[in-house]
Amino acid sequence: MEGVYIQDFRINGLLISLASLLFLGIILLSYRLFMLGMLPIVFLFFIYILTPIYRSTVSLFIFFLVGTLLFQMVTGYYAEWDISKKMKIMLNRSSLLLIIGGLWLSILLSKQHVFLFTTLPDWKKRIVFPFHSIKLSSFLFFGLVGSATIFIPLLFLDGSSFTKSFVTYGIFFSIINAFLEEFLWRGIMLSSLKSNVSTFFAVFTTSTGFGLLHISIGIPLVMSLLFSLGGLFYAVVVLKTNSIYPAIAFHLIINLGMVFNGWIF
């Protein structure tokens, strides 16, 4: 029995180490400290070689950080272009495909079969919580109402600044960002981790990583960590509905509100 406890301790310690290396890599690469950011990748590579446990997860983290490195290098290249700030933001968000491509390559090399949560929600399903259950339609309605509260500050803004081009930009930005971020974090990362480790670890890692990656677009560290709460909410929505689409819809609404409030410009 003591041997089992020691083994569990070692496994938990390994998972904590893997998550710590992932988070450290995201932070360093987001601040464009590329040489230091390579160190977590190197450590993960050695862990992959030396430890047969959780190799699919280690591979996923390695390819995520390599994709993040490419993402930062490419977006830095865009920054030198003589184009509008709005276009640079759109290119930045579209470049998340580099990270997604890295994750997909890892899954192919690991020969994993991931669910990706791409099925439509079962509207007849009831969402079960510890002390009660609720219809899926009601659950999504309350989530929609909660997300829509981000538009409340608009009541106190001058609506004359909402030009057609600004509204068009807000819609396209929100669609691209919500779809790519959700497919990256909840579609690929959460699905892959959930099939290899505990659901708790999968949710914690993807939610925290989701928040930290916002450092790369200039959001301070503390605020980025607060964004992890949004990642936690989206993860719960995906797991409860068994579908990524409601999370994409909620994420889109939040992004749209942030643009129209002038928080993303």
Q: Quickly count the helices.
A: 10
Content of β-strand: under 5%
Gyration radius, in Å? 20 Å
> End-to-end span in angstroms?
58 Å
Average pLDDT figure = 90
Low-confidence stretches: 1-9
Order of helices and strands: HHHHHEEHHHHH
Q: Biggest sheet, in brief?
A: 2 strands, antiparallel
Helix content: over 70%
- Helix vs. strand class: mainly alpha
- Order of strands side by side in the largest beta sheet? 1-2
Number of strands: 2
Give the overall shape: globular
Number of domains: 1
Oligomer: single chain
Q: Can you give me a brief rundown of this structure?
A:
The protein is mostly helical and 265 residues long. The chain has helices at residues 2-30, 34-50, 55-78, 85-94, 96-110, 136-148, 164-196, 199-212, 221-241, 245-260, and strands spanning 126-128, 133-135. It contains 10 helices and 2 strands.
Describe this structure in words.
This protein is an all-alpha fold and 265 residues long. The protein is built from ten helices and two strands; from the N terminus they run H-H-H-H-H-E-E-H-H-H-H-H. It has a two-stranded antiparallel sheet. The protein is globular, with a radius of gyration of 20 Å. Keywords: Hydrolase, Membrane, Protease, Transmembrane, Transmembrane helix. Residues 166-256 form the CAAX prenyl protease 2/Lysostaphin resistance protein A-like domain. GO terms for molecular function: peptidase activity. This is Membrane protease YdiL (CAAX protease family).
